[in-house]
From TrEMBL:
Protein name: diphosphomevalonate decarboxylase
Keywords tagged on the record: ATP-binding, Lipid biosynthesis, Lipid metabolism, Lyase, Nucleotide-binding
Record flagged with keyword ATP-binding: yes
Species this protein is from: Alkalibacterium iburiense
Gene: mvaD
Domain Mvd1 C-terminal per the UniProt entry, residue ranges: 175-308
Length: 323
């Protein structure tokens, strides 16, 4: 019996937005993220010659063949490396709302990479697992690691993978404001492609990223939550600005997203260390000190419902669950 593998979501503080190579998922720029404990995916894989084709059971429901695209990219790579031809049964339990900008693909494809390689008898290093996960979802390359991780863009399949940066074992956390957990209208993949191909602001975004990344790594080395938050907020706003200049233009923000951003600015006026970041979705994540989280949450409860607020702390890297 194969074992369950767990991978946690990560939230990018220096964003990945745009591919250099669509097929291999080679990004236009390096990115840096924090893996979190609150959201995760558990997956196990069984290669079974009696199956007619690959099957995916997500949260107890068999998925249509059309949902297997990213999954089969990872499975085919594993089969090729292991020299096996059997179809696979993939069972996955997602403790993350899917396609809502909460990094479900990061945890999902990272867990799949770990479970599939284990089921095939491959003993992959973390670097090799990161490359494998990347083939399914770029951000999944970073979920192999706990704490802060940097995805090095590289130039080809062999050189594009994530590396650990810092274990984040200090006073940093995130508080999620869930304004909408529905599936978004424009997927990350489609939004990214449209932005790269048509946005007048895209080249300007790329030109600022090396400086942002250098400053972020310095802030992390100093364990400076305020600087980490400032850089992350500025980087996120620049990323989202590129979508407004795409053709046709689009945005992941909603009125509730903007209400949440205003609440974060109000928190700063009250003296809290609080800065927001957003991925390709409407939900807002607050970079903050763990030691201030209770006070921040109490303030936010005057604006949002309790079930909209989720506390998160630095989470672990990919690991096998005991049976």
């Amino acid at each position: 019996m194969t074992k369950w593998v767990r991978a946690h979501t990560n939230i990018a503080l220096i964003k990945y937005w745009g591919k250099e190579n669509e097929e291999l998922i080679i990004p236009k720029n390096n990115s840096l993220s924090l893996t979190l404990d609150a959201f995760y995916t558990d997956t196990r894989v069984t290669f079974d010659q009696s199956l007619v084709e690959d099957e995916l059971i997500l949260d107890g429901e068999k998925q249509p063949h059309s949902a297997l695209g990213k999954v089969q990219t990872v499975l085919n790579s594993v089969r090729e490396q292991a020299g096996i031809t059997s179809p696979a049964l993939v069972e996955s339990i997602n403790h993350v709302p899917t396609a809502a900008g909460l990094a479900s693909s990061a945890s999902g494809l990272a867990a799949l990479a770990g479970a599939a390689s284990q089921a095939a008898g491959l003993k992959l290093s973390q670097e090799e697992l990161s490359k494998l996960a990347r083939r399914g979802s770029g951000s999944a390359s970073r979920s192999i690691y706990g704490g802060f991780a940097e995805w090095i863009k590289g130039t080809d399949d062999a050189t594009s993978f994530a590396v650990p940066v810092d274990d984040a074992n200090w006073d940093i956390g995130m508080l999620f404001i869930i304004v909408n957990d529905a599936v978004k209208e424009v997927s990350s993949r489609d939004g990214m492609k449209r932005t790269v191909e048509t946005s007048a602001f895209y080249e300007g975004w790329l030109k600022t990223l090396d400086a942002d990344l250098k400053a972020m790594k310095q802030a992390i080395s100093e364990k400076n939550v305020e600087s980490v938050g400032q850089i992350a907020e500025r980087n996120a706003l620049k990323m989202h600005a590129t979508t407004l200049a795409a053709n046709p233009p689009f945005t992941y923000w909603t009125a509730e997203s903007m209400k949440a951003m205003d609440a974060v600015r109000a928190l700063r006026k009250k003296g809290f260390t609080a800065y927001f970041t957003m991925d390709a979705g409407p939900n807002v994540k607050i970079v903050c000190k763990q030691s201030e989280m209770t006070g921040i949450k109490d303030f936010l409860l005057t604006h949002f419902e309790a079930d909209q607020l989720i506390e998160a702390r630095p989470g672990p890297g990919i690991h096998t669950l005991e049976q």
